[in-house]
């Protein structure tokens, strides 16, 4: 069998890094009994704003099926409501969803602070900038 050094692979390094970030994120939002997807949907809906499931999928860069599943969970917990608006469905926060916003903001801040144990603030901003520019180029291909 040929020896391949997977530790030098961008693919495997990014997968390992994503697992670490996902674990931290999942643990953080578990404090509010939410999955990261559900928390991000709630944080995307500000106050009395409404949006469509398609817009949420675009904003959060996730599949429509993930949005649908998460909206079902949030609606069951009465944190969001869905209403027909012509040919579209719009999503908005309920009173319970609005009341949860300060907790989500605190959890989000704490999550971002936890990243600083992995690297400095400057390292984090440089990594984000590099990922954004690389993603932009990759999407153009």
From TrEMBL:
<protein>
    <recommendedName>
        <fullName>HTH marR-type domain-containing protein</fullName>
    </recommendedName>
</protein>
<dbReference type="InterPro" id="IPR001845">
    <property type="entry name" value="HTH_ArsR_DNA-bd_dom"/>
</dbReference>
<keyword id="KW-0238">DNA-binding</keyword>
<dbReference type="InterPro" id="IPR036388">
    <property type="entry name" value="WH-like_DNA-bd_sf"/>
</dbReference>
<dbReference type="GO" id="GO:0003700">
    <property type="term" value="F:DNA-binding transcription factor activity"/>
</dbReference>
<feature type="domain" description="HTH marR-type">
    <location>
        <begin position="7"/>
        <end position="136"/>
    </location>
</feature>
<keyword id="KW-0804">Transcription</keyword>
<dbReference type="GO" id="GO:0003677">
    <property type="term" value="F:DNA binding"/>
</dbReference>
<dbReference type="InterPro" id="IPR011991">
    <property type="entry name" value="ArsR-like_HTH"/>
</dbReference>
<dbReference type="Pfam" id="PF01047">
    <property type="entry name" value="MarR"/>
</dbReference>
<keyword id="KW-0805">Transcription regulation</keyword>
<dbReference type="InterPro" id="IPR036390">
    <property type="entry name" value="WH_DNA-bd_sf"/>
</dbReference>
<dbReference type="InterPro" id="IPR000835">
    <property type="entry name" value="HTH_MarR-typ"/>
</dbReference>
